[in-house]
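Last lecture ended with a question: if I hand you only a sequence, what can you say about the shape of the protein? Today we answer it with a concrete record. The protein is Glycosyltransferase. Below, first the input exactly as provided, then the predicted structure, then a couple of comments.
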Amino acid sequence: MGAGHLRPMLELAKQFVRHGVSVIIPVMTGGPATDLVSKYSNSNPSISFHILPQITPTAPHPAPFVNMINTLKDYNDGLRTFLIMQSDISPISAIVLDIFCIHALDVASELGIPAYFFFTCSASTLSVFFQLLTYLPKHPMGDIGTTIMQFSGVPPLLASHLPSGLFDPTTEQYKLSLYMINRWAEGKGILVNSFESLEPRAVRALKDGFCLPNSTTPSIYCIGPVIIYEEQKEERHLCLSWLDTQPKKSVVFLCFGSKGSFPIEQLKEIANGLGNKGPYSLFPCCLGCTRIRISTQTEIPYSYSLFPSYPNTPLENSGQRFLWVLRSPPTVNPAKVFQQTAEPDLDILLPEGFLDRTKDRGMIVQVWVPQVEVLKHEAVGGFVSHCGWNSTLEALNFGVPMICWPLYAEQKMNKVFLVEEMKVGVELKGYEDGFVRADEIEAKVRWIIESDGAMDLKNRMMEVKESAIKAMEMEEGGSSFGAFIEFLECLN
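The predicted structure:
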């Protein structure tokens, strides 16, 4: 599975250990697990890992999602053998499954082990998914068009906000998606990476049974925010040193997750809005596989107070300081969707002279930065994000206002929840059509960093930050801390 699911599971394991619970994590051979297991096992000796034996995979399916679920199912035999062996050593209190590991539920049931799911998306997303089980059979996506859909606990949604795999009921991906959601309801409970005060309506709809009217809702435990902290390295990432030199709340951070990438035309459009004129400066640097081109900043020549009446120039003239994590354009080969992409060639992907024009105020990092460390840095004043839930929780936890650019999966729904329900983000127009123009990026970046009109959003974000901290507090009776204790008591 992708790092976006594996890393939260590893952070959850740390919470178990802090409460005196022994944890063993079975992981697949190869993939992103290999490096992460090595890193976490060295720095977290209290967490044990078991590498499941190599499998002979079934014939690949053309849909990457279906192929992934089938691959996970192929590991059931190895998982069963391991659990039986482990049970002979000491009793297993429960198994906590990633939401994609639906077939492992059969192994847990066969062995009489209580099974819970760890839902790494929002409670709002979970509430919608459960309600789709009764909604979609009556309202096929092909018949809905632009109709507004109403669900308990969340704002109105358009059909286009749903994951694309739910659009065509004749596909294997559609059928498997609904089957997966049904399997979640069969677990004894669901640990949700969120906190109740962030999504009170959705949590109430789930707990009151409105989302699964025809069956019993499993116990819901909001235990978040489970934040993914990178393991400490001896050498500090260069981007953090660069941020140290920037004024407080002056830098906009652009990052789109481990799988978020854009065609070259969109990359150039982003660059056109972030660049500025000036002499050329290039500082190549190698940190692992990461090359960095950096700069520092000039004064912004514009002043304004109302959004969105800004100078209608390319974003390149916005004059904002920026830190941009840039990935290579997406592959056109479906079989390689979940593989690591090649390191991007900035000279090809960026407009001619872009590094020249941004030499005094921008930094581009290829592939990766320590995102949590970046978001909690005082120089960062805004976050252009794909609205992945891990990234969203990190922004909320550190009070960084969001500029929402959803790309895939449930991210368009997250955008609605963030902008309309939680009031912690602003939308980038054009994402629904697959192309966001430079002047739109310019307007929103300027607004979030400079405009007095963004103060309500920033104040709201600080309120959410305080709520996130309180939810995890032990002494103050935080809701998420209490929910985790309640879950542990069920295991006993």
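Comments.
1. The first helix runs from residue 3 to 18.
2. Residues 276-315 have pLDDT under 50 and may be disordered.
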